[in-house]
Each structure stands twice: as C-alpha cells, then as structure tokens.
Records
---
Amino acid sequence: MHNTTLQVPFRRRLVQWVIRQPWLKAVYQHVPTSLRDRVTSRLNAPVELVGVRFANSERWAAKKQPVTDAPVRLFDQTTVFGPEQGVNVFAYLRGQFGLAECARMYARALLGAGYPTALIDVDIKLPHDWNDRSLDAYIREDAPHGVHLVFINPDYLQASLDQIGEARLAGKYIIACWFWELENIPTSWLPALELVDEILVASQYVGDAFARVTDKPILCVPLPLSDVGDSGLQRADFGIDARAFVFMTSFDFNSFVHRKNPFAVIRAFQRAFPDRDRNVQLLIKTSNGHRNPERLKLLLDSIGDDARIVVRDHVLDRADVQALQRCADVYVSLHHAEGFGLGLAECMAQGKPVIGTAWSGNMEFMDADNSALVGYTLVPVEEGEYAHHEGQRWAAADEGQAADWMRRLADEPGLADAIGARARASVLQTLSPERAAAALIARLSAINGTPQMSRNATATMTPPQGSPH
C-alpha cells in the first residue's frame, strides 16, 4: 500500500467549495482585488503531503545548476536582418508549466539564430511555480519591434493584453501562440480571434482546429527541442530501484487528469505484469498535486496496494526533469488528446522508446517506425473530464495493445534500444531549433517587410490541411 497521507485544512476545503458555486463565483468577481488576492492565496496554499515528494538526497544540494543560455548578440543584428526586423516575445517566461516552457523553447530557437528578439515577462498570478530563471539575462521591459509574439491562451489573453498595456500594443502586428487539445475550439475563445492578427500552432492538429473557426493566417511550427542541461541526478537520488525496468508517465494536476489518462497507464501496466514479483516499476511523476488534493487522492486510490507503482508529486527544475527522464527506460502516454506531447518528444530526444496513443498533436513527430504507437477508439468527452466537453470526442487508447508493448520492451532490450535510437534521430531532425527558427524567421521577415500590415490584412500563406479556405 502506498504510504501517503494528504492533510487538507478545513479552511482550504471551505474556500474551494465557495469558488465552485456558480452564484458565489459571480459575486466573487465583484470582491475588491486585495481581498480576492488573499482568498486566492488561501486557495493555492500547499497541502501537506507525506510520502509523495522526492526525498532529496545529499546530491540534490550539490547538483548542477540549471543551464542559462550562453549570451548572444540580441539587438545589433541589423547588418544581417535589417533595421526593420525583429520580434517581441510576451510570455510566462519564468513559469514552471507547459505553455511557459514552450515559449522558452521558441525564444531559445530565435535567440540561437541571432534574430533580433526582445523577451518580456508576463505574470498574471496564475497558480503555478515561477522559478525558472534560465532566460533572465534576456528579459526586458520595452518592446522595440513591430511584431508581438504572445504566448497566452485565449481565456487569459485579454487580462494579459491589459497588463502589456496600450502603449506597447499600438500599431503592432500580433501573433498569438495557442494550444488546445480537442478537435473543436470553444465558442468562448472566439472573441479572442479579434484581438490578434495571426495564430502560431505547434501541430497541424491544433492548426486544423483553428482553421475551422477563422480565416486568419495560421503558421504551424513544431516545438523546437533545446538541450537545457542535465542536473546529473541518478536513480538513487530519485528513489528509483537501480535494477528495475522503469516505465514513466507524467502530467500536471493543474491541467485535467482525465486528458492525460494515467489511469489507463496503471491498468495497462498491471495487465502487462500481473506477477508482482517481476522487477518492473511504474513511476508517475506529477506536479501541483498539493493544489489539487482530491484529484491526487483519486490517483493514489486507483493504484491500490501495488508497491511497484510510485507517485511522486514535485515541481522540478528543467535540468532535473531531463535527469529523471534519463533514468527511465520507457516513457508512456496513453493520453486521450494532446496539442503537441512535449514529454513524449523530450524522451525521444534522449533515445528512449515511447509508448503513445496514435492520435492528435503527437503525430506531428511520432510514427510506426520511431515509436510504439497504440491504437484507439474515438469516444465522446464526458462531463467533468475536460473543459468545453460538449460535442467533443477524443481517443480511448487500446490498453491491451499498450500492455503488449510494455511486455515486449521489457523483455526485448534490443527492440527498446532500436526504437529509442530511431526516435532520437527522428526528433532531433524534425524538432530541431534550426528548423523552427528558419520557419519563424521567414514568416517574421515577410511580415516586417510588408508596410502597414494590420489586423485587417491577410497574409499569403498555405492554410493547414483540411482548412475550408
């Protein structure tokens, strides 16, 4: 039995109940900001977790620090690109969550290519950790270029634009980088389309979704993988059995647990290895369980008394994440839907075989040659499983097929090594920073070279496959 205790203060449970009531939520919006901030602070206060965090060894204190990108010439490349070129990147640059990391990846690609890039941090007090300092050397306040690249999803776009301010928005061409995981864009997002000139997406899957609701330009540039370094931590530092064959899956509780579908991974693992004496382990790495104790308890309860399945809820530095991925043998994602699937891509880049649902954004870089693809059945998204579920569908992975892959990879080291090698070679090419930077710079150069391009103008672009225009 997992030896984990969740201690949730009554006051926190009461605040959570209040916020969940629709009529009280409406009242809450009119409460003075100072008081709302205090309530939000209570709501997001960490819950005491016993036995779920990684037990820091002595090596954690002495580990390598996360890598800060080597300095590059940021604002004097006019001899290469011309004085009219450049882009301002607005993003959660210090956030420790998916959209923030994606923004840093695109920013690193542009910086590495020497394109004039100004980075401006956005912080609208979302309930996440904010300790990534890898790009601090490049963060500034002014936005000197004619194009804004904004990494804020539609539901928070207006609040972020208010923070950015009219002075920095006036006369600028705005490209919004948006992520979404389902086939249909929520109707509540549609007004945000009027606030931007163009959309950047990381996968054709997301591009097709937006193409159904807008005729604005859509640029698809897959996420560029950047090596931010490895902290050097080993299995012993993470509490992982040195002799076990380790499967790993990961997700953030601040997202929707059902979309990532760890329950299917647990069932497939137990189906693959019914013999409890088998030296295998499933590591479920999560974040923000302390902010979502009810969901964390649901996950822990689904494990039962299987000691081979370990949950660790811990926000790690990016270099520690890379070290943890290195320590695993196989990465598994039986997701219902992905806008891109960054965890899969990162593990492939480390030469790890990955097992993944053959559906949605991860098919931008996964195929039957470089991955252990799992078939699926498309099913309706049920209420409570994801936001804006009405009329949506997603993929239910074939758990039997996933279990077969787990057994094969554990029993056939040669197969695991071969798939991992093909995975690494494939994504290092498909998801290279150079390739992404070239695509972004080509588009930015075209925009900056077009006089007086405004929100009402239409760029000449090839629309995503399946687009109605």
---
Amino acid sequence: MIEILTMENGKELEEAYRLRHDVFVEEKGWNDLARPDKREIDQFDNDSAVHMICRRDGKVVGYQRMLPTTRPHLLSTVLSTLCEVDQPRGANVWEWTRYCVSKTHRERGRKLSPVANELLSGIVEWGMANGVDSIIIEMEPIWLLRLVQLNFMVTPLGIPRQIDGEDVVAVVAKFDHRTLEMLQAMRGDTHTVLTPASRGMAAVVARPLEALHV
C-alpha cells in the first residue's frame, strides 16, 4: 500500500532517498546527483513536498514525490526550457517527480508492475480526494502513449529536448474516475491503495495550498 509522508517523517524517508540514489545515480548515471552518503536529495525535498512510498515486506520498493505548482518546482526553476506555453499552475496542478521502482519489483517490457500500479493509483486517489486533477511530468516521450492508455488526458507543453543524453518532454496529464477505474481493472480490485493513516493525512497535506502562492 501507499504511505504519504512529509518532511516531518524525516527518518522514514531515509530509505526512500537511498532508493532514489540507486535508481537515478547508480542505474541512470545522473552523476550530478551523486552523494557520498548514497542519499539522493535536492532543494525540492522541503516542507511543501508530498512523498509517497510503497513497501514490500517492510522495505521501500517504490517512491514518488509530488510538488505543488504554487511553489517553485522543477519545471518552473530547473527545466523551464521544456515549456513553450504558459506553465500550468494552481491548487489543482501538482508536479510528479522522482518516480522510481526497485529493480526487484519491475516488470519486463512496458507492463505496469503491481508497485507501479499502486504508485499511480495513489496519485489519483489522493488527487481526487483533494481537488487535484492534473500532474506535470517531465519524461521520455515513449511514455506518452502509455499514459493515454491508462486514461490520462495528456497535453505536451513543448517539444522533446535532450537532457543528460535522454529525450525529455514536459506534459500536463489530467485524470479523473476513469483513470482510477482503468488502474483498478488492471490490478483486479477496487480497494484503496492508501494506508489508513495516509487516507486521513492526505487532506491535511493538500488543503493549505492557498497559503503557498509565491
């Protein structure tokens, strides 16, 4: 299941930071993010960030981070050249970043693994409960079709550009109950993926957005 954490859960996030280092530095070769302590952490791991983790047998095997677009985020500050239109901003739009799944819990090819399904379902469940209906994503263009197949309504924000040797495109992906129904159908159940504690916490995290405008 998916746990929602904030910086107040600092100790619980340590394993997630190490998973991020394993995936983005050790596997993908993003050496600018390398740290001697093997923790991948950046300026956006702040009080505004919402962290979602997935565990198997007590170990963190999946992770993603949500950033409010009403605060500085990757597209607005670091990757702004990817956007050629007015940047989507608002309480209903968050940026999806640092998505990763442990090697041991991935599926071959482009099939969505159970962990990946839970992570995506977690975004949609959390968003639908809190007035969030769109996510900004910077990703490889090959995943555009995959998102459409999952019933996300995807709009590119610019053309793909090369970043660290990879083609990257920025998109805004809108979701609704049809997205959740597709993800539920793929995994074969309609139960919530959020832990009981996270269900209560989600609204607390998302509610104070009006105070976050800069």
---
Amino acid sequence: MISIFALCYNIPFNYLVGLPSIALSSFVVLVICAGLYYASRFRYKVAESILITNFVGTTLFIVNFFLNSGISGPTSQFFLLFLLLSIAISPAEQYKFWIPVNICVVLAVHAVEFFFPETVPFTYMNRESQFVDITSAYVVVALLAYFCTDYIRRSYEQEKNSAAEKNKAIVRKNQLITSQNDELKKLNDEKNKLMSIVAHDLRSPLASIQNFLELLSEYDLPAEQKLAIEKELLNSTKQTLVMLSKLLDWSKTQLQGVSAHKEPLDLNDLFATTLNFEKGIASRKGIKLEYLLDPTITIFADREMMQLIVRNLVGNAIKFTSEGGTIAVRSEIKDNNCIISIQDNGIGIPADKQEAIFSLNVQSTFGTKNEKGVGLGLLLCQEFIHAQNGELWFESTEESGTCFYISIPLHQEGVLLSDRE
C-alpha cells in the first residue's frame, strides 16, 4: 500500500519535471504493485507476492538509477527506502538474504557509474529540476520511512501485547486446571474415604447381624440366650441405622451444599426433647447426664442443625464415658453469642488424633462398651455450625475427659431476619 501511494505521487511528478521515461516505468510498477496487493490480500499468495515485490522493486531502482542521473539523482535514497519496505514486509528469516542483496546492488551500480560514467547520462534539464527532484525525493523518503517504521513498531507492539495476553490466558488456564485438579483430588480423596467408611464401618455390624440370625435359625437356643441375641441384634441394627443416617446427612451436604434456615430459638425448648432422649441412653449405660440451660436465652440458628449437632456431641460423650461417669451440658452468654458446652469425664481424645478430629481423615473408634461409630459426626457438626455463623472447638486431656464448645449468635430484638442472613 505504501508503494502504491508513493508511485501514484511519483508518476505525475516525474512527468512534470521532464522525466517521462521514469514516469512510464513507475506506471508499469504501479500496475504490478496493485496486482501483488490483490494476490496477497485476496488470493492469499503472500509468500509469492513478497518474493516478486522484492525482485521487481530492486529491478525498478536499478533501471531508475541509470535513467535518472545515477548518483546525481535521488535513486540512492529510494534504494534505502526500499530496504526499509523490504524489512517491513519480508519474514525475519529472509532478512539475511534481501539486506545483502540491496547493499550489493547499490555498491554495484555506484561502481558502474564510477568506472563507466558514460553509462549514466545526466537527465535533468537544468539545476532547478535536479534540486526539486532530490528535495522532493527526500521528503517522500522521510514520510514513507516514518510510515514503515510506525507500521513495524505497531506490529511489534501488537505481537507483544498478543503474546502477553496469550501468556496471561495460559497462566489463568493453568491456574484453573491446577484448581480443578486440586478440587478433583480432594473429591476423590473424600470419595475414597467415604467408601472406606462404608466398607469398614457398615460391614462389621451387618456381619454381626448375619451371625446372630444364623444362630437363631440353625440352633435351638435357650430362651435366655435368644433374648440376649435379640438385644444384640437390636443394638447392632440401631448402630447401623445411626451410621447410615450420618452417611446420608453428610452425602446430602456434599451434593446440595449446606444451607441454614435461621430463626429465633428458645434454647431450653430447642434441646429439651433431644437431651431427654439422650438422658435415657446415658442412664442405661450408668452415666449421669445433667443439663443446665438458661431458659431466658434465645439464639438465632437453624433448629434441625442445632439438634443434630447437640445430639452428635452428647452421643459421643456417652460413647466415650465409662459407667459411673458424668456429662454436663451448660450455657452462658459471652458478648453477642451463646456458648454451649458439653463436658464429660470420659477417656478423652488422644493427642495424635486431635488435629484430624474435624476431617475425613479421622479414624472411627470404639466406645467404652465397644460402641462403633462412623467418622463423619464431627465433620457434619463443624459444617453445620459454620453455616450458622458459629464456631465449634474442644479441649481434651487423655484419660481425663473432653469438653466441646459451641458458639452461636444470640437473637437480637429489633434486627430483621433478612439483615442477619
């Protein structure tokens, strides 16, 4: 395009300054340039067009050198301009060919004029036409050099920005892939842990149930033994049901996410049924369960979640407390939160297991009467308490007991529920 514009100027100018042969040759080259532009832009013959352009341009300026006064004319400036044009349009790997060709051609035509001056006639009609031609040629070369340089610079900036954007996209994609891989690994680990829990913790009670049923069906046992086996069957069935319930609750939170439906709840009324039920279980094991909950406290929480949390924590306290032990459930107000504590004087949590107590990596253990559990209860409790803007932590000393603490926001009068959500 730059060459076409330059030739459109050069044809009438050369004709006006008395160089019709140069004007004619420029017109021929203009037609060739237009054809090359069409071939490269619309016929996609870019490589061929670049080759022909370099060849035709070099030939044109060789002819122009001998028709337009040689070194006394502007052709040497045009050779330099064409070198810049060649650099602008040619692939980088072709520079090492076209740059030496351009330099060698200029040196060759200058040598011919030096040794054979008669081959290069002086074609200007007068000194004024020579002055105008060389001066205008400089202006044209300067302008075209600017356009070429600006084109090269903008192309470089465009490529640099494009490369930078591609690098950023690659980095973002790699980060996304890394994040997805981490998430997949986490999900896979959780799946493996869940399958391990199902395989290990459910197989044992189901095997016990099968064995008991085989004894009842194959042997004529005394009434007392049958009654003992029926009690064990009932106990194993209850344990299995508890495990399945916890597994289903945890699976539901993983599939649907944890969503708390918070409302003002009277603390004493909220836990009365749950604690009375657990009190009966504790009594059968010979454990004293006492609860001292402030009836004036109203919390802002999810009813079902809070009942599940307290049921799990009290159930664990019963499980790991020996006969004759004591479990106390208390409440107090601290700042704008209600602190509920469940304290037992049971076997405590070993120090090496405390760090993983709220994760899938925790190992389920047997209680003081070989009660079997599943390692999802405390994980569920933590997820549910966080969903209600609360906190859950514990203090434990092996062989001395454990105390779990629940911190849950108090209900504040005059605050809209939507605001607290």
